[in-house]
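Readers outside the structure-tokenisation community will struggle with the description of the input data as it stands. For illustration, here is how one protein appears when written out as sequence plus structure tokens:
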Amino acid sequence: MSKKTTKKSDKGAWISKRLAASAQQECNNAIKLLNKEKHDHVGEDVYEIRQNFKKIRALLRLARDEKDNYSRENKFFRDEARKIASVRHANSMIEGLDLIQQQYNERIYKKAFSDIRIHLEEHRDKEVEKVLQENHVLQDMHQNLEPRCEKTTSFFKGVDSFKTIGSGIKRVYKRGKKAHTKALNSKSTSNLHDLKKRVNYLIDQLDAINPVWPKFLKAWSEELHELSAFLGSYRDLAMLNDYLQENNTKISTEDGAYLLGTLITGHQDQLRKHAILLGKKLYYLDPKDFIALLEVAWETHASGMDKKLIPSDKLER
């Protein structure tokens, strides 16, 4: 190996270490939650575990074009997360109901949807029972995850240049832009959900490279978080509305199902419009221009490291 190659690798070693450390932390957090003796708040635990896995998958996507074992690693965390999706979905519907109750609190009877909430809680409790007792899902996931973490962190060895990760970010941004265009022309729930996935991947990837342009990437990430929140609420309400329609024989109109369905439709329309407008700003750039911007930031950051500059916030101005 030449001296020139060694120097280049050393300058980019920070990103390899940062990605490995982030993946390890997400793994450790998930293991800790899976290993709990009691899950008094299993809905919250399931949400956090799935978030841990999604962040790992976003990091894996940074080097997907450079690593032959990407598909295997990504599939593992995807499939493990699916094992507890039913609990998350059941909890999301309750969150959707609470959102409507809070949003229209001054215009509807306080207990207008109390019977529906009881029904949703019973449904959630059944799904929790399956995960914790009948199928022992969390225990199995813990056994699968522990030996996997070391392999996952080693995945990022050699990821030490913008060329290595740039194509991964570009792919995620490009697919997000495409998903936004589809959502613009269609009210399909699946299109908006696809956009949400792309948004979340981009959030985690930009957070990973935050040191190259902290102020700019933090601001961009905050906007993406807001977009993700709009899309997440839309998704919660879509699942709730579908559930109401599928179980209309169990939930009578006297329980407020018709009123709830009407409010859901109106609120979804508002969420979608806000998401489309915000997405238009965040996905305005052509993918190649977006990546070019990040690459310049990367090179500038590397130059500053090479010259051993003191941080700008330490300078007297």
